[in-house]
Amino acid sequence: MPAEWEPHAATWLAWPHFEGDWPGKSEPIPWVYAEVVRNLAQHERVELIVNDTSSESKARKFLDRANALSANVHFHRWRTNRVWMRDSGCIFLMGQKPGFARSDSGEPAMSLSKGRLSPHKALDGEVLALKFRFNAWAKYSNWRHDEKVGSLMAKGARTREIRPLSGERRIVLEGGSIDVNGCGTLLTTEECLLSNVQERNPGMTRVQYEKAFADYLGAPNVIWLGRGIFGDDTHGHVDDLTRFVAADTLVTMVEPGAKDVNHSPLRANLRRLQAARDQNGKPLTIVEIPMPGPVVFEGRRLPASYANFYIANGAVLAPVFNDPNDRIALNTLAQLFPKHSVVPIYSGDLIWGLGTMHCMTQQQPALV
C-alpha cells in the first residue's frame, strides 16, 4: 500500500445525499464538498460517485455555482448509503515483486511471510484493489449499497480486485482504521480492531491482523496505539489520532488540558509512539499538534481533529474549526509539506456527520 503522499491518479469521493448523517444541518454540506472537489481537481482527477441521474444533475449545479466543475471531474452513477469512501471504498495497492516490501529508497526492505497476494502473481507496478468487507463499522444498519461500492470502484479503475481472507473468512476492515508509511510500517489501534465493542472480526487475534497486514498491505511492522478520541463513532479510527507524513515522520494529536477526556488516551498513545520503531528498527520523528477545543452540537461532543487531513498531489486539505489551534495545525502542516499548498476547509458543519477530509476521500495511486 503506497503512502498517501505518493503520486495519485485520482481521488474518489461520493456526493452527499443521506441527510441522516447531518440531521438538521445538511444544507451547507454540498458546499463543503464543492470546495473539496474544486481544490482537488486543480491537482488530480476526481472520481465522483452519485446515486443516479437526478443526483448527478444536482451535484453538477452545486459544482458549477462553486466554480468546481471541470473536465477533471468524472461521474459514476452508483448507489451508496453514505459518503465515507475511506471506509466503504476499496484500498488501492501497487503490485510489487512477491515477497518484498519497499525501503525508504524503494529497494526491497525485508522478506514478507508467504501471503495471499503471491498466488495472484501481482506484477511490479500493477494497480490492485483490495476489497475488504464493509459492515458500517459494526454499528449501523444502512450499509448494503456501500458494501458493493469497492467492487464497483475496482471495475471503474480497471484494476484487479482481491478479497482479503483470514483463514477462510473474509476480513472486515476500514481504511480509516489504518495508516501506512509505504515502506512496511502500519499504524492502527487496539480499540478499533481488538475490542469486543463494534467488533469487526469476532475471534480475530492481534497475530492474525498482523499477518493480514503483511500479506495484503506489504506492512509487516505494525504499531498498535490504544484508544481513539472521544465522540468517534468508529470506535478508535487511527486517522483521527496519528498520521504518517513521511517514511520516518508522523504527526500525532495531543490534548494539553489535563481535565479533558482526550488528555489521557492521547498521552498514552504518544508514549507508545516514542517507544515504537520503523520497519528498519529506527525510532520515528514525532510531531505533536494540539487538539482543537471541544466542538459540541446539540449537547454532543464531536470528533473534531486536525489529524483527519488528506494529502493530494499538490495540496493538503486540512479541516479547521474556527479555533485558535487552527493556525498551529496549518503552520505545522505547511512546514511538513513545503511543496504542497495547505488548504484549510472549514469543517464545523461537516463534523456533525462525524468525519472530515480523510474520511470522505480515497486515493488511487498513479502508475509511475
Describe the structure.
- By secondary structure, the chain is α/β, with parallel strands linked by helices.
- The chain has a single domain, classed as 5-stranded Propeller (L-arginine/glycine Amidinotransferase, Chain A), CATH 3.75.10.
- The protein has a four-stranded mixed sheet. It has a three-stranded mixed sheet with strand order 4-7-8, with helices on one face. A three-stranded mixed sheet has the order 11-12-13, sandwiched between helices.
- Helix 9 links the parallel strand 20 and strand 21.
- The chain is globular and about 50 Å long.
Quaternary: single chain
How many structural domains can be distinguished in the coordinates? 1
The helix/strand class is: alpha/beta
Number of strands: 22
Portion in beta strands: 15-25%
Q: Strand arrangement, largest sheet?
A: 3-2-1-22
Main beta-sheet strand count, sense and barrel state: 4 strands, mixed
CATH superfamily: L-arginine/glycine Amidinotransferase, Chain A
Poorly predicted parts: 97-120
Number of H/I helices: 10
Alpha-carbon distance between the two ends: 15 Å
Rg calc: 19 Å
Question: Per CATH, what is the topology?
Answer: L-arginine/glycine Amidinotransferase, Chain A
Mean pLDDT level:
93
Helical proportion, percent range: 25-40%
Named at the architecture level, the CATH assignment is 5-stranded Propeller
What would you call the shape? Answer: globular
Brief write-up:
Helix content is 25%, strand content 25%. The chain is an alpha/beta fold.
